[in-house]
Amino acid sequence: MPSRAKNVAYFAVPILFAVALHWPGLTAWFQKDDFAWLGLRDLIHGWHDFWWVLFAPLAQGTIRTLSERVFFLSFSTVFGMHALPFRCWAFLTFAGSLTLASLVCAKLTGSRAAGFWTAILWAANTGVAVALSWTAVYYELLCSFVLLSSLWLLLRYVETGERRFYAAQLVTFILGFFVLELNVVYPAIATVYALCCARNILRKILPLFGISALYTAIHMAAVRLPASGPYKCIGISAWLPH
Question: Which residues contact 200 (CB under 8 A, 6 or more apart)?
Answer without folding.
Answer: none
